[in-house]
Amino acid sequence: MSRRLFWLLPLALLPVPLLLNPYQQYVLNTALLYVPVGIGFNLVVGNLGLLAFSNVAYFGLGAYTSGVMMVQLGMPWWLTVIPAALVGGIGGAIASIPALRGVRLFYLAIMTLAFGELMRWTYIRWEALTGGSMGMAVPTATLFGWALDTDRRRFYAFLALVVLLVAITDRLLRSRFGRAFLAIKDNEIAAAAMGIPTDRYIVLAFAWGGAVVGVGGAMFAISVGHLTPVSFDLTELIRQFAIIMVGGLASLTGAIIGAVIVTVAPQVFISFPGFDELVFGLLIVLVILFLPRGLASLLARVHPAFVERYYRG
Amino acid sequence: MPDALLIARGVEAGYGSRQVLFGVDFDINEGEAVALLGANGSGKSTLLNALSGFVRPRRGSIRLDGMELAGLPPHRTFRRGIVQVSQARDLFPEMSVDENLRLGAWTKRGDAARLRDRVYASFPRLFERRGQMVRLMSGGEQQMVAIGRALMSEPRVLLLDEPSGGLAPAFVSEIAAIVAALKRQRVTMVMVEQNLRLALSVADRILVLRDGAVAEQRGGNADEEEIVRQIYL
Predict the structure, then answer these.
(1) In this complex, do A192 and B91 lie within 8 Å of one another by their Cβ atoms?
(2) Are A191 and B103 inside 8 Å of each other by CB?
(3) Among partner residues A197, A198, A311, which is closest to B99 by beta-carbon distance?
(4) Which structural domains are found in chain B, ordered by start?
(5) A292 CB within 8 Å of a chain B CB
(6) Could you read off the pLDDT of A196-255 as tens digits, one per residue?
(7) What are phi and psi of B56, to 5 degrees?
(8) What SS3 state is found at B205?
(9) Separation of alpha carbons A94 and A220, rounded Å
(10) Distance from B183 to chain A by nearest Cα, in Å?
């Protein structure tokens, strides 16, 4: 995405809450918090090209880190965002271990999937902290003493965070790191043969991806106000995977588009029970069939401002 | 006489339970072009992979300028200056010629533009196709990209694994010309090559591998027929 477009989009969003009812505002907030979730997932699957399916683990780690710190330590929400990123990032680094040992493709997919399920099991079992399967209520968030007690208020905090995360990730992908990710994705052996320490970059991609998703988790915690392990199950993983598949692999714009579509589309059909899932499933199939590089590739065809080629930067 | 640039002593290596190299010894001097010959399965490619770190030697020592390389991972041996152009060519298929070359200079930050200009000067054909995706190029052109990319890091020792392997005859002579040009620039080379004529035309010295060890060493002006006998009989 071109620089100008990147800054225009959030500016254009600033007055939007004035036009929305509280429910629509909640849906928009959900779409926003799924942007970092998609970005982090895409970093590993799209940019690095490794089939790691532990994204929900980082999401849950971020959400519970934020929630537990607010409940147990009485900390204000904004102070829990960086710890949520750290814990998500550590989760990412841990999930990269099988990849470092040379595990690839569906073997890696299954092992990382197991990590996500193990985390869900942990949320259920560690009742003292998480409230077990009954879940935990998350107190009202505050930002420098200012209560984020409405979806409209949370919207501006979320928007600021998302802009920051997109900007940093964009910088990362344009740098030497982004070129290393691409080289590893294209041909890992050749990347090592060119003197690129591939292990280090794999850990970095997982850790940064996990951190970004962890922040999304912290946003999720205060957006829903109640954390239960069932929010972090395989259905959630499929939703998150749909974000990057529909939006476009290895594309920041794709993660944004995917987050919006995957969040908003089911809401449109929510008054027709069962129909929403059908339409949603159909949408995914159509995109994969006709736009294997996602909706972002469609935008790139419409206007060159949407073209992302990080390794040229 | 000063010490050789690359010294191997008692190198043993293999894959899993299968040992391929049983104590390889050789010296390679700076600026020398050495051809590594041998029948199929004699360990030529394994030896190159052991030198570049893609196969970890089980025993023995490989020293470059007196520094031990045995056991280092490939990205570290690369940084020391041992660069392999492999049989599979190991290019970045989804990237352009230009991007492939730039990645070749990964360890030479800031120097990439100068090095690239130099590679383009010696490979005008690559300059013409610099924007083309490597996947869409012919085998011979890909081999040129692979050699060009290897030169981007200013290697101390260039390892060439069958540079003419699988190429059309027209390209074989072109690759032979490139290798000859590298030799004139006094690039230190170790080459595995099935095409004996090509190998003998550039090599200062020949090492014949048999059963995972050096069976014979001789000057580059050896008689072709005699070499064939050395390799196979």
Answers:
(1) no
(2) yes
(3) A311
(4) 32-57+72-232 (3.40.50.300)
(5) no
(6) 999 999 999 999 999 999 999 999 999 999 999 999 999 899 999 999 999 999 889 899
(7) -85, 120
(8) strand
(9) 22
(10) 22
Q: Which of the residues in chain A have pLDDT under 70?
A: 1-3, 309-313
- Neighbour-count burial of B16, counting CB atoms closer than 10 A to its CB (0-12 exposed, 13-18 middle, 19+ buried): exposed
Is residue A80 classed exposed, middle or buried when 0-12, 13-18 and 19+ CB atoms within 10 A define those classes?
buried
Q: Minimal Cα distance from B103: which residue of A?
A: A194
Q: What total of structural domains would you count in chain A?
A: 1
A193 touches chain B (CB under 8 A): yes
Query: To the nearest whole percent, how much of chain B has pLDDT over 70?
Result: 96
Does residue B124 have a pLDDT over 80?
A: yes
pLDDT at A102: 86
Hey, are the CB atoms on B84 and A190 less than 8 Å from each other? no
Chain B: residue whose CA lies nearest to A309: B95
- Contact at CB, A182 and B153, closer than 8 angstroms: no
Decide if A187 and B93 are in contact by the 8 Å CB cutoff.
yes
Residue A98 in contact with residue A111, Cβ under 8 Å?
yes
ipTM: 0.83
Between B12 and A9, the more confident residue is B12
Q: Chain B contact for A313, CB < 8 A?
A: no
Q: Is A141 helix (H, G, I), strand (E, B) or coil?
A: strand
CA distance A175 to B48: 33
The CA-based dihedral angle spanning residues A141, A146, A150, A154, taken in that order and rounded to the nearest 10 degrees: -70
The token pair that represents A135 in the structure block: 């879940």
DSSP A121-137: HHHHH-HHHH-GGG-EE
Residue range(s) defining the domain that contains residue A122: 3-234
Instruction: Examine residue A308 and state whether it is found in any structural domain, yes or no.
Output: no
pLDDT value at residue A2? 63
Size of interface A-B (CB pairs under 8 A): 59
Q: Indicate whether A266 belongs to any domain.
A: no
The whole-number pLDDT of residue B131 equals: 94
Contact A109, A49 (CB under 8 A): no
CA distance B14 to A183: 28
* A197 contacts chain B (CB < 8 A): yes
Rounded to the nearest 10 degrees, the angle between the axes of helix A22-42 and helix A55-72 is 120
| Low-confidence winner among A184-188, A280-284, B65-69, B101-105 (lowest mean pLDDT) | A280-284
71-90 in chain B: CB under 8 A from chain A: 73-75, 78-79, 83-84, 86, 90
A191 in contact with chain B, both atoms CB, cutoff 8 A:
yes
Neighbours of B110 (CB within 10 A): 7
Could B90 and A179 be called an inter-chain contact, meaning their C-beta atoms sit closer than 8 Å? no
Give the model's pLDDT for residue A310. Answer: 52
Tell me whether residue A52 is in a domain.
yes
Tell whether A282 is covered by a domain. Answer: no
